[in-house]
């Protein structure tokens, strides 16, 4: 799973046409016991040195109704 995500993300981050584009990473399904942690979601795809703003992945759950709002608010500051 991580290798596919990392390959896709590396492709996006190395695309010069996207050099000034912000990316929002949402860690979903945190209400499930086997959900990845914030640290895993930063480490495995290689985001440890690439995050800005809050310096983390935004952890989210539809069931708990949490996290999405913070992520979208963070992203909205980069939209003209």
UniProtKB/TrEMBL annotation:
Binding annotation for GTP: 29, 31, 62-63
Keywords: Endoplasmic reticulum, ER-Golgi transport, Golgi apparatus, GTP-binding, Nucleotide-binding, Protein transport, Transport
A Pfam family reported for this protein in Swiss-Prot or TrEMBL: Arf
GO molecular function, one term: GTPase activity
An annotated GO BP: vesicle-mediated transport
Transmembrane segments annotated in the record for this chain: none
Keyword Metal-binding tagged: no
InterPro entries (UniProt xref): P-loop_NTPase, Small_GTPase_ARF/SAR, Small_GTPase_SAR1
Family that this chain belongs to: Belongs to the small GTPase superfamily. SAR1 family.
Protein name: Uncharacterized protein
